[in-house]
Amino acid sequence: MARSAKMQNLLSRSMGWAGVTMSIIILSFLTDRSHCSLQHVGSAKNTGDSLSFLVVGDWGRKGLYNQSRVATQMGRIGEELDIDFVISTGDNFYENGLTGIEDPSFEESFSAIYTAKSLQTPWYSVLGNHDYRGNALAQLSPSLRIKDHRWQCQRSFILRYTICPHGLQCGGGSADIFFIDTTPFVDHYWKPSKNTYDWRGVLPREKYLHQQLQDLQVALEASTATWKIVIGHHTIRSVSTHGDTEEMIQQILPIIEAYGVDLYVNGHDHCLEHISSVTSPLQFLTSGGGSRAWRGMKEGANMEGLQFFHSGQGFLSVQIQATLLHVAFYDVEGKRVHELNLVKELMSAS
Hints:
The protein is an alpha/beta fold. Helices cover 24% and strands 25% of the residues. It is built from nine helices and 17 strands. An eight-stranded mixed beta sheet has the order 3-8-9-10-11-13-12-14, with helices on one face. A seven-stranded mixed beta sheet has the order 7-6-5-4-15-16-17, with helices on one face. A two-stranded antiparallel ribbon has the order 1-2. A hairpin with a 6-residue loop joins strand 12 (272-276) and strand 13 (283-287). Helix 1 runs antiparallel to helix 7 (205-222).
């Protein structure tokens, strides 16, 4: 009963501000039309001593605006770290997503750019607002995985990993990574404008958002992972041009703070940044420097908790061990420009 009351209270707080009922709807890799609960895409995988991956966002510009240079450095760092996969924080194809599964932009902005051997791993991707301006269902289609086996794009899903140090059968730690679909939360995109958005699979909005919040909360409450990471396109906190996203602060932030999420990682702002929450251990990381950047800071930005800001292109790496999580930010030249270390004690098995 206590758990149920806590969940209902959080949902009431999240939904009350927006005046809507909300929902996590996951589109399965098997179909782009079926609504179902938050799915496990990578399930109970043993990773050895550590889990390593790269995060890049806001990249798909056919190699322009230093996209190719960032890709080169991602390949180098990916090889050094022997990465398990890559995460994309959205805005995968500019300016208006893909026109369909045959759009040559998929090859020109993805397959032909990220050619390094170390990057021939799964790419777990979410949709950004620019992706919704095209045929959003095309990016979710299994047909793209036939064209390039790496492509794994879904609205919302979970990756679960168990870390097994020194060849032990039971791990000394674990990591759950929750991917959420943030664009439908932002009111701005629903107002009349010159841009159109592909809301197939999202309407009715109120029901979709209600399910998003409910499923995220249920998944986080059920998680026993040592490390919890949430991935979305839009910022919660940012000092760059888009700034804080009020809808995310009001609706998503209370849930992820309540359930002890360690990192919220996003794109949207075309920069690299690290902001620490002043109300919880949560760290806000922006990796949106995959191509066009150098937009600077927002005038009057909320600087509270700011640890690092880089206005240029780049990406970040995450390495997770049983009791240590290490993040490194890299610029367009592959220079390490900022680091973050988080440490936890494992609970005794006795």
